[in-house]
Write a structure and sequence with these properties.
Distance between the termini: 67 Å
Order of helices and strands: HHHHHHHHHH
Strand content: under 5%
Oligomer: single chain
Number of helices: 10
Radius of gyration: 22 Å
Shape: globular
Structural class: mainly alpha
Helix content: over 70%
């Protein structure tokens, strides 16, 4: 027996496509979403069922689709780790590029409030795509750091008018270089402090007992 998607998924996809056409001029307002629903051939009840939270649900779907395009179409090859991360990020931006003006109009506080959660989801998907083995605190720190890189890069992307996103790619590369340099420095400091920590522990035992 074949499994089909519920009607609401198809309706949401249709509503998103129409809303992305409306948003560059009209934003993500209730009125523009009503017009998008009419364009998509949906009545009020179908539109509310497809996207109960309106623009928030539609933007969530769009970024989910961008993530899937990133994972499906990015050829990672044998690049360095930072090179593979950069490739994935830029594949995502390439998918988003033709709807950049619509995304610019989604900068209202109510819609921007959910951006960190969506960026965390993207960061998690990137690390999973790269088979990250972390299970301890590194699992969260890697995703937190990459979420920050994604958020800062998104701001550059939204204002990058170059056809091939050269400004965005250069910014992503610099941020990833900074992150890798910081991680190396942190690891070096940890190694340097390890003997001192052992000494301090021994002194504490002498002073205070076990």
């Amino acid at each position: 027996m074949s499994q089909t998607n519920p009607p609401s998924q198809e309706w949401r996809a249709r509503l998103l496509a129409a809303a992305l056409d409306e948003a560059p001029d009209a934003g993500w307002t209730q009125i523009s979403l009503q017009r998008a629903a009419a364009t998509a051939g949906l009545d009020k009840g179908q539109a509310e069922w497809a996207a109960p939270r309106g623009a928030a649900d539609l933007l969530d779907l769009f970024e989910d689709m961008a993530d899937q395009a990133m994972l499906d179409n990015a050829g990672l090859g044998s690049n360095s780790l930072r090179g593979r991360v950069r490739t994935l990020i830029m594949a995502r931006f390439a998918y988003m590029q033709r709807h950049r003006e619509a995304l610019r109009r989604a900068a209202s506080p109510s819609l921007a409030a959910e951006a960190p959660r969506r960026l965390w989801r993207t960061a998690d998907r990137i690390w999973r795509r790269l088979n990250d083995p972390s299970t301890d605190g590194n699992f969260y720190s890697k995703r937190t750091i990459l979420t920050g890189v994604l958020g800062a890069s998104m701001l550059v992307f939204l204002n990058d008018d170059t056809a091939d996103l050269t400004e965005t790619e250069a910014f992503v590369a610099r941020r990833l270089d900074d992150v890798m340099a910081f991680e190396k420095a942190k690891a070096a400091v940890g190694k340097a402090l390890a003997p001192a920590e052992g000494l301090l522990d021994a002194l504490a035992k002498l002073r205070y007992g076990r």
